[in-house]
Design brief:
single chain; mainly alpha
């Protein structure tokens, strides 16, 4: 037979074990709740990874489009610059012809008796 002290120790031990068991059961329930979230979190991760891949593809495509646009702009700028140079050259020639004609008119007006020298 057990003594009263042994009986009390056994009861305390059983009580402690029950309390520990209760805490462990609660912890297991909490872990099960967290584990239940894992499949949904994996799905969300997969969706996010797919979105990242799509954004990277889109960014690469946009970068290529920007390069093409810049190349087209550069080509257009070069053509425009060449046209500007050509027009400035034509303007300079026309200004020269106008000035030449002014001089001829002035010469003929001031010296009608003399034939002005033609530089044609």
């Amino acid at each position: 037979m057990q003594s009263k002290d042994d009986e009390l120790k056994t009861r305390d031990s059983v009580s402690s074990l029950r309390e520990l068991n209760s805490k462990l059961v609660a912890e297991i329930a909490e872990l099960r709740k967290e584990n239940a979230k894992i499949p949904e979190l994996r799905r969300e991760k997969d969706l996010l990874m797919a979105r990242i891949v799509e954004l990277e593809r889109s960014a690469k495509e946009n970068a290529e489009n920007i390069k093409l646009r810049d190349a087209n702009l550069d080509e257009g700028n070069a053509k425009r610059d060449a046209e500007i140079i050509e027009l400035r050259t034509k303007i300079a020639k026309l200004e020269y012809i106008i000035e030449e004609n002014r001089l001829k008119i002035r010469c003929e007006f001031m010296h009608p008796k003399y034939a002005c020298i033609k530089n044609d």
